[in-house]
Amino acid sequence: MAEALQSETTTETTDRRILRSRRMLMEALVRLLTQKEFEDISIQEIADEATLNRATFYLHYPDKNALLQAMTAARFRDLIARRGLSFTDCDGALRAIALGVCDYLAETTGCPTQLAKMPLEGSIIPVVEGMFLEGAAHHEMAPGVDSALLATTAAWAVFGAARRWFQTRDRIPAEEMAAKIETMVKPIFLSASQ
Predict the structure, then answer these.
(1) pLDDT, tens digit (0-9, with 9 covering 90-100), for 7-51
(2) pTM of the model as a whole
(3) On the CB side of 100, how many CA atoms lie within 13 Å of its CA?
(4) Which residues pair with 141 in a beta bridge?
């Protein structure tokens, strides 16, 4: 988890105190999720569990949903790093993201019960959208193409296909599914670029 947090926040800050506080808050939320439903966890409980004060929580996150999203982003980026997936070119990036989403869904079953039950689209879709927006910034879009809408459409397509794969009883290997997702989603990007 620490490496995941590091990779997520390195671009934002390298201040060890900030990274430590964020890590402590994420770890506190994970521990609390083993005891109760997300909706029933208060910000004060998260702060207490992290041995930080409530004001420190608000210095880092506006609400507990933002903390959950940051935790999800950290876990997702950690999965991609552990797989050694690279984003050196656009062709590899889409497959890497699809594989990361498949891995994320498969690994969530080993997480605290409440985390495994949560609707993951609210936390993983924004992370994938952000990755697609980053990539779109390096390409010239066709006239009239809204990059944010493009990123949202592609993120939901990747997540939806990965979720269906995950819910299939005798599913194919994640690598095969990632290749299929890439084949289906790539035309969305090709039609939007010049």
Answers:
(1) 444 445 678 999 999 999 999 998 998 888 888 999 999 999 999
(2) 0.73
(3) 27
(4) 193
Residues 167, 1: Cα–Cα separation, whole Å: 26
C-alpha atoms less than 13 angstroms from C-alpha of 165 in its C-beta half-sphere: 24
At 70, give phi and psi (nearest 5°).
-65, -40
Domains of the chain: 2-67 (1.10.357.10), 86-192 (no CATH)
Residue 87 structure tokens: 């984003």
- b/e for 98-126, b at 16 or more Cβ within 10 A? bbbbbbbbeebeeebebbeebebeebbbb
Report the amino acid identity of residue 151: A
Kindly list the distances between the CA atom of residue 192 and the CA atoms of 133, 143, 144, 158, in Å, as whole numbers in the listed order: 13, 9, 9, 17
C-alpha 191/C-alpha 170 separation (Å) is: 33
Residue 57 structure tokens: 């929580």
